Amino acid sequence: MSKLKNSRIRKKPLGHEIWKARYLYLLLIPFLIWLIVFCYGPMYGILMAFKDYNARLGILGSEWVGLKHFQRIFITPAATRAIINTFVISVSRLILEFPAPIILAILITEMPGKKTKKIYQTVFTFPHFLSWIVVAAILSNFLSNNGAINVLLESFGMEKMNFLGNKSLFRPLLYITSNWKEMGWSAIIYMAAIAGIDPTLYEAANIDGASRLRQIWHVMLPGIKTTIAVMFILAVGGVMNAGFDQIFNMRNPVVKDVAQILDTYVYDITFAATPNYGFSTAVELFKSVINLILLVAANSIVGKLSGEKMFH
User: Fold this and answer.
1) Topology, domain 75-306
2) Do 182 and 100 form a contact (C-beta atoms < 8 A)?
3) Which helix (H) or strand (E) holds 256?
4) 64, 143 in Cβ contact below 8 A?
5) What residues form DSSP beta bridges with 52?
6) Are the beta carbons of 40 and 46 closer than 8 angstroms?
7) Hey, is 51 helix, strand or coil?
8) Global pTM?
9) What is the DSSP letter of 217?
């Protein structure tokens, strides 16, 4: 009986708990306003994906066409090519870019000396703060027909190479520059996770005679397994994005066939041609739905394989 009474005493009304943390909830109000105005408010425009949008009639007054725009996605060669390019580039990013910050975080963590670690961390993190416009300009200065590398090749009597106009080189350049720019910034998350591992686990492994590589494999990686799982799920959930800023600034008409992704395709049909806002909205909604499906699927698969889930 006394235990039952104590449990009843411990339970407090929800209103009481909210009032107790009222100042924290007040801090949330500006964020909630921003979320409603800029994230949920514009979702009203999704209706354009199902309408033949006419600016004079407005969204509600425009003619309802159902799934017409979605059907057009799969019968338009440029759209289907953009879908394929998006998948190829994004899956390649998962294979070539996702492990890079994990490896970098381990390497920096294993370096001797705090100053050395800070120097390398700063060096690898700095490129993140450069915009893709600047990175594209740097690439142009080095790899264009009159760039530094071609001038060097010419000085040695060799023929110039069209690096930026080579379709087979465009995607490797995407992965190389993306790793150079972002892996240092992403490594911070994994370094923070590594710092949270109990040092006694390393000591126990060392006493058992485990080498440093075995400690990394059996202590460090399992210790950051949850972080890796969450980051992987988020990466899979963004597969249909593929990196608009980077590709938009690095592409050119010569490599358009291998560079055109859904985001750049939507940009082109909206701003570089006679706009069809209904079709553009349908493409973006299609992309978002696929991302959602992939996010849920990745969460379920990773949960079954590793026992770690981002949400249940």
Assistant:
1) MetI-like fold (1.10.3720)
2) no
3) helix 256-259
4) no
5) 63
6) no
7) strand
8) 0.83
9) I
Q: What are 39's two structure tokens?
A: 């994230």
Three-state DSSP at 62 gives: coil
> How far is it, in rounded angstroms, from Cα 305 to Cα 36?
36
Contacts of 140 (CB under 8 A, 6+ apart): 147, 164
What is the tens place of the pLDDT at every residue in 117-170? 899 999 999 999 999 999 999 998 888 888 888 888 888 888 888 888 888 999
The number of CA neighbours under 13 Å toward the Cβ of 69 is: 23
The answer to whether 232 and 298 are in contact (CB under 8 A) is yes
- In angstroms, the CA 35 to CA 31 distance is 6
- DSSP codes, 260-297: --HHHHHHHHHHSSS--HHHHHHHHHHHHHHHHHHHHH
Angle at 235 between CA 108 and CA 192, to 5 degrees: 30
User: Which residues neighbour 235 within 8 Å (Cβ) at sequence distance 6 or greater?
Assistant: 93, 94, 98
Q: Parse the chain into domains and list their residue ranges.
A: 75-306
Q: How confident is the model at residue 113 (pLDDT cuts 50, 70, 90)?
A: confident
8-37 burial, b at 16+ Cβ within 10 Å, e below that, comes to eeeeeeeeeeeeeeeeeeeeeeeeeeeeee
Number of Cβ atoms within 10 Å of the Cβ of 63? 10
Q: Are 186 and 101 in contact (CB under 8 A)?
A: yes
Which amino acid, one-letter code, is at 110?
A: E
Give burial (CB, 10 Å; 0-12/13-18/19+) of 195.
exposed
Q: Which residues contact 268 (CB under 8 A, 6 or more apart)?
A: 260
SS3 63: strand
Vertex 81 angle, CA 142 and 274, to 5° = 90
CB proximity list for 41: less than 8 A, separation 6 or greater = none
